[in-house]
């Protein structure tokens, strides 16, 4: 990380406690690069997170206000923050188990409502912190601590689901595509409405050792070899896309933001100009 970016971090607790080869540090690096490029004062960002490895990205390392909430409830808390502080940059950073698993309904309906949140879902395909259990994004046929005879479930295509729910901005990148990820994070931070990026990230310790990817470099090579662009994916069959990671922007639209509509209704009722 470049020296000038350290001003966004709590240096007294660096280096991070993430496992060797974990992608969470890369996501943190990308995030501070994005806010530095946009010249956003970190005091104007309110980070909200839940429980899990990815929740350690903003809390405790990011030098800004953070709500470290209960498991699966980050978006519910963040929605409350945005309603009360509509002019704030409210950012949610959490994992696939937190946002797609126990918090899945909150995620879908926040996208449907188009709440003005920026959400970075760090997808490492597993519950890494609590013992390597199967998550909603674990690939079919993978052995985990709770699927010892292989996973019989198909993974949730979370970015496509959020796009279908109505979010104004949706993208997917891996930690290998770091510069494109930073640019996408910048786009998300500037989006008015619900903005979502699925960040496919490596977990050598809990997931990688079960699939033969024992270090961060092996994961980077895997992401490089198995990623296809959104444009190219449209020319490929479902069989050809099996095991591939579709990267790029999946949705961009301009629906009215939820708290803006809410404030308009409140003002109309206050002044007696509403329906």
Can you describe what's shown?
The protein is globular, with a radius of gyration of 19 Å. It has 11 helices and 10 strands. The mean pLDDT is 95. It has an 8-stranded mixed sheet, sandwiched between helices. The termini are far apart. The protein has 275 residues and is of the alpha/beta class. Strand 5 (126-127) and strand 6 form a beta hairpin. It has one domain: 3-Layer(aba) Sandwich (Rossmann fold), CATH 3.40.50.970.
Compose a concise summary of this entry:
The chain is of the alpha/beta class. The chain has helices spanning 24-37, 74-84, 96-102, 104-113, 158-165, 178-190, 204-211, 216-226, 230-233, 238-241, 258-271; strands at residues 45-49, 65-68, 89-95, 118-123, 126-127, 133-134, 169-174, 195-200, 227-229, 245-252.
The run of helices and strands is: HEEHEHHEEEHEHEHHEHHEH
Termini separation comes to 54 Å
- Could you give a short account of the major beta sheet? 8 strands, mixed
Number of strands: 10
Note the beta-strand portion: 15-25%
- Average predicted confidence as pLDDT: 95
Using only C-alpha atoms, the radius of gyration works out to: 19 Å
Low-confidence residue ranges: none
Structural class: alpha/beta
Supply the CATH superfamily name.
Thiamin diphosphate (ThDP)-binding fold, Pyr/PP domains
């Amino acid at each position: 990380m470049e020296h000038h970016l350290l001003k966004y971090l709590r240096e007294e607790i660096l280096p991070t406690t993430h496992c060797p080869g974990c992608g969470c540090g890369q996501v943190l690096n990308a995030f501070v690069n994005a806010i530095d490029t946009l010249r956003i004062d970190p005091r104007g960002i309110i980070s909200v997170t839940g429980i899990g490895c990815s929740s350690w990205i903003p809390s405790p390392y990011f030098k800004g206000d953070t709500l470290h909430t209960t498991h699966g409830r980050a978006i519910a808390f963040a929605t409350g923050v945005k309603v009360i502080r509509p002019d704030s940059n409210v950012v949610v950073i959490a994992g696939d188990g937190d946002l797609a698993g126990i918090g899945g309904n909150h995620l879908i309906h926040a996208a449907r409502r188009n709440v003005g949140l920026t959400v970075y879902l760090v997808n490492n395909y597993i519950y890494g912190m609590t013992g390597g259990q199967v998550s909603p994004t674990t690939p079919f046929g993978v052995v985990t601590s709770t699927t010892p005879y292989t996973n019989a479930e198909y993974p949730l295509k979370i970015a496509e689901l959020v796009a279908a729910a109505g979010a104004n901005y949706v993208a997917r990148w891996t930690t290998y595509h770091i510069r494109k990820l930073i640019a996408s994070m910048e786009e998300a931070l500037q989006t008015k409405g619900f903005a979502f990026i699925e960040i496919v990230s490596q977990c050598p310790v809990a997931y990688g050792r079960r699939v033969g990817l024992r270090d961060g470099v092996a994961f980077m090579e895997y992401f490089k070899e198995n990623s296809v662009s959104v444009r190219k994916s449209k020319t490929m069959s479902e069989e050809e896309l099996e095991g591939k990671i579709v990267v790029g922007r999946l949705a961009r639209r301009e629906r009215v933001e939820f708290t803006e509509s809410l404030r308009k209704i409140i003002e109309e009722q206050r002044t007696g100009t509403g329906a």
